Amino acid sequence: MGMTMAEKIIACAAGVESAKAGDIHTVELDRLMSNDGTTHLTIDMYHNQLKHPQIKDVSKLVWIVDHNLPSDSPKTAASQKKMRDFAREHGITFYEGEGVCHQVMMEKHVRPGELIFGADSHTCAYGALGAFGTGVGCTDYLYAMVTGTSWLLVPETLRFNLTGKLPDGVYARDLILTIIGKIGANGANYKAMEFAGEGLKSLTMSDRISICNLCVEAGAKTALMEVDEIAMDYLHAHDREPKALFTSDEDAVFAETYDIDLSTIQPIVAKPHFVDNVVPAKESLGVKIDEAFLGSCNNGRLEDLRVGAELIKGKKVAPEVRFLVVPASRQVYQDALKEGLLDIFMESGAIVMNPNCSVCWGSCQGVIGEGETLISTGTRNFKGRAGHRDSFVYLASAATVTASAIKGEIATADMV
Ligand SMILES: CC(C)[C@H](C(=O)O)[C@@H](O)C(=O)O
Ligand code: SF4
User: Is 360 annotated as a binding residue?
Assistant: First the structure.
């Protein structure tokens, strides 16, 4: 019987010939990412709960400070110091100021065919390079750090066959929000979401990362895409070679197959307080906003900043709105700077910030107050996600967010 991509990657990591959905395997991890959201907890467990604290293979570990950067309180300063000191002491690859963890991992570490644990839910982003990335809590992370291994229940796969091309003014973010709206926040629980088909060829690496990254919002264990020329070009441009290249067999068994014609997708908004609470953006027009956010591991890449800059060039941010523009990495920041994009944003009245999670996470920058409304390219719109529990977050594409920042209310790109 044929195997899916997920089954092949797990079989490879388990050192067995074949794996099938429902099997449990002990796997060798290729890489272990952790950020300042939880690493201090892992370190506490390492020191206080292990009889024989040790790290199996330090070269697998990548630690990144991105969530509250620069630190915003004595408490975060202390937990980041704990992380920094531990990383230095053990020789762990460590980044601070380099960007949002998943973007940094895509730029510097992820290789096709790898099995990667990240102590962060959006680790599924790595599927854009054909790697099985999955989020784990810090207990599982610690176990993997100490042993270099873990166990995995092989997930079933939902296959999305993409055809056609996205219309002008419609983005990958609209596509993945549409899919999450269609299958629901639990629609892919513990499943791999695999994207394939001719339509994939029309999507850039930035689009692909955005799609894979958000799959966890449908409950997915991981997201996967076949590695094609576009992915190989990205990999080579970043000086890396694949570990292994896998595709699903013709006779692989999928739990469900969906056919999606990209040309039918339209601008989408996810309304408070759930990511699957999606409506066509046209149905949310006119909602007054206090803040707009262009950034995050989902939508803070150069391509997203280009979309925003093109729309806002020569225009102004609405006077009553704070427009936060936060490149997803140092690389994105430098590229945007060279292209003149940051100038365009600053001339419009936007606030350009250092690469970090910013108000996607809502604990460090741009936190919103009681009754306020944010339109965001971040990943989540749960109650209190961006600040006060009685505030409101709408999720949308870079284009819709920028158009809304200009208008002071939810608007689509064709309205500015
Ligand atoms: C802090 C971290 C554990 C968290 C996650 O797991 O996703 C954060 O990145 C988020 O997006 O909510
Ligand atoms: S940008 Fe948002 S989704 Fe991404 S890691 Fe940071 S907080 Fe999580």
Answer: yes
